[in-house]
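Please decode residue identities from the backbone states below.
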């Protein structure tokens, strides 16, 4: 039996956003205002009655509440007194062009990434998670990887449609959007999901494809104000 309420800081935890992962939670007090992001496919619950779920991959803001039950959650506490833009001066942050390469990602686009953090593994049937009409009924093992992103107000962060993992996003500071497009052009927008602090996109944008691939629409993050958000990636390992 794993011991309950294992809480550890994540590699990108810092002055602007304190970030921890908590696993095998049973009755964990959450002081102050805490964004809770459920990493697991089972629901999490606050202790308050009536009990309502924090569903798989979704989030809430707990205010002086107790987390009664959760398999694995990220706990985020933002310092609202600090300007969000200062986060990129914390250790390990890089402009995305320094990660992806300047030929892939333009230096003129304000997009910065924190160090990444491993967050254990999840066993799940990707087809069932992604809402396929006929899920395979076969659980697979995914390594969970977490990171923060920053983008400045008014930035289109770049339309893309390729990932070899399942991703979701949770807003921490500022206001932005996750957007879907029919073509790699902002005029072809067909879905606009507004992101405010504490909101996560609980339904990944992808479907399962052939040979363990994931099929994404053209999509991007757009920052309406200076924004910090959490990306959650599920990487297939078996
Ligand atoms: Fe993406």
């Amino acid at each position: 039996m794993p011991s309950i309420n294992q809480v550890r800081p994540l590699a990108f935890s810092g002055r602007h956003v304190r970030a921890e992962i908590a696993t095998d939670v049973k009755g964990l007090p959450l002081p102050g205002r805490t964004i809770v992001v459920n990493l697991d496919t089972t629901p999490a619950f606050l202790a308050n009655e009536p009990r309502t779920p924090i569903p798989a991959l979704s989030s809430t803001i707990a205010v002086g509440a107790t987390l009664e039950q959760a398999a694995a959650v990220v706990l985020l506490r933002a310092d609202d007194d600090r300007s969000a833009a200062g986060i990129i001066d914390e250790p390990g942050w890089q402009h995305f062009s320094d990660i992806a390469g300047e030929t892939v990602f333009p230096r003129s686009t304000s997009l910065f990434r924190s160090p990444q953090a491993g967050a254990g593994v999840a066993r799940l049937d990707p087809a069932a998670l992604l809402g396929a009409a006929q899920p395979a009924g076969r659980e697979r093992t995914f390594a969970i990887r977490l990171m923060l992103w920053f983008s400045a107000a008014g930035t289109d962060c770049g339309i893309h449609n390729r990932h070899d993992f399942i991703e979701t996003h949770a807003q921490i500071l500022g206001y932005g959007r996750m957007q879907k497009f029919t073509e790699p052009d902002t005029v072809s927008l067909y879905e606009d999901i507004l992101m405010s602090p504490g909101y996560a996109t609980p339904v990944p944008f992808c479907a399962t494809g052939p040979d363990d691939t994931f099929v994404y629409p053209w999509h991007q993050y757009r920052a309406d104000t200076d924004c910090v958000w959490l990306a959650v990636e599920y990487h297939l390992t078996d």
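Observation: Residues 96-100 form the longest helix (5 residues).
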